[in-house]
Design brief:
This protein is an alpha/beta fold and about 290 residues long. It is built from ten helices and twelve strands. The chain has a six-stranded parallel beta sheet with strand order 2-1-3-4-5-10, with helices on both faces. The structure holds NADP nicotinamide-adenine-dinucleotide phosphate.
Length: about 290
């Protein structure tokens, strides 16, 4: 019988993952801040409570700009925390599902990124996540699956791009949105389903260990994404007042952390392993709007 532990369960992905587990009648233990993953003793103590077979790590320091001045804090959660979980997973011979990011890449490639392409993070958050990947692969090479994802949004958070855009679209006739950063939006519930499949929880067997990329279908700029959000919002009869979305460059919105210009993930490995292709992000927007209605 599966003994499943979800860390960071109060976060956007953590909540989506717990709901997906419930939908599949998979009992699990969800922990939030009370089990601080950066605290080795706390992780070891919680690990002793059950004969874990699966550890699904959704805990992370995700404030990208904040990480520039708090790099040590980001490292503690994203690198050390990942290592602690990998260690207890190895001790239990449990499968570890760890989540990482497109920000491990510098975004200079004209091609979509494959799993073994060279990494070169541009910011502190990306460095801390890359250190986490390395710690996981070193500590539990045979039992870890790392899923890199990008531009995450979902019904369990108001802190992402889609929610921000919709809020502004209720208020402003004109919006300025960056058009020179490209990526692939990802709907957290779709990622959650993919994680359960990779872990072998909703499939007969787990995917081979290693790194996978998952994102919804369709690379776009933030500007194109915003246009899609406006269209979807209008289709759902939201009282949006935005009439035009101006395309601006990254330099119009200076931020502490540099972002990759083109961190488009190639998802062919996960498509081959799972035998299915991620849905277009435009389709997932409708699910999102129904979920938050
Ligand atoms: N959001 C994106 O666009 C995006 C893109 C690519 C990859 N990812 C990756 O996807 C994963 C899930 O991200 P998310 O968007 O769901 O992030 P999130 O909403 O910020 O969730 C992360 C959760 O981890 C918790 N946490 C932070 N430090 C912790 C600690 N020391 N011990 C235990 N829990 C701790 C957070 O609690 P508090 O809220 O109390 O801090 C939060 O509930 C992360 O690995 C992230 O790096 C995200």
């Amino acid at each position: 019988v599966a003994e499943i532990w979800v860390t960071g369960a109060q976060g956007m992905l953590g909540r989506a993952l717990c709901r997906a587990l419930e939908r599949h009648d998979l009992a699990h233990i969800a922990t939030g801040r009370e089990v601080d993953v950066s605290d080795e003793k706390a992780v070891a103590a919680h690990a002793r409570r059950r004969p874990w077979t699966h550890i699904l790590n959704c805990a992370a320091f995700t404030a990208v700009d904040e990480a520039e001045r708090r790099e040590a804090d980001a490292e503690r959660v994203n690198a050390l925390g990942a290592q602690h979980l990998a260690r207890v997973a190895a001790e239990h011979d449990a499968r570890l599902l760890h989540v990482s990011t497109d920000y491990v890449f510098d975004g200079q490639s004209p091609h979509a990124y494959r799993e073994n392409d060279a990494t070169a993070p541009l910011n502190a958050y990306g460095r801390s996540k890359l250190a986490g990947e390395r710690a996981v692969l070193e500590t539990h090479p045979a039992g870890a699956r790392i899923v890199r994802t990008s531009w995450l949004f979902g019904p369990d958070s108001r802190g992402h791009f889609v929610a921000t855009m919709l809020r502004l679209m209720h208020e402003r006739r004109e919006l300025d949105v960056v058009g020179d950063q490209h990526g692939r939006p990802t709907y957290a519930p779709d990622l959650a389903d993919a994680i359960l499949r990779l872990a072998g929880l909703t499939e007969a067997s787990p995917a081979p260990a290693g790194i996978y990329h998952f994102a919804n279908r369709g690379a776009c700029s933030w500007h194109r994404f915003a246009t899609g959000i406006l269209e979807a919002g209008k289709a759902h009869d939201l009282p949006l007042v935005t009439e035009s979305i101006r395309e601006v460059t990254t330099s119009a919105f200076p931020r502490p952390a540099a972002r990759p210009a083109r961190s488009v993930l190639d998802t062919s490995r996960i498509e081959a392993v799972l035998g299915s292709v991620p849905r277009p992000w435009s389709e997932t927007l409708h699910d999102y709007l129904r979920a938050v209605a």
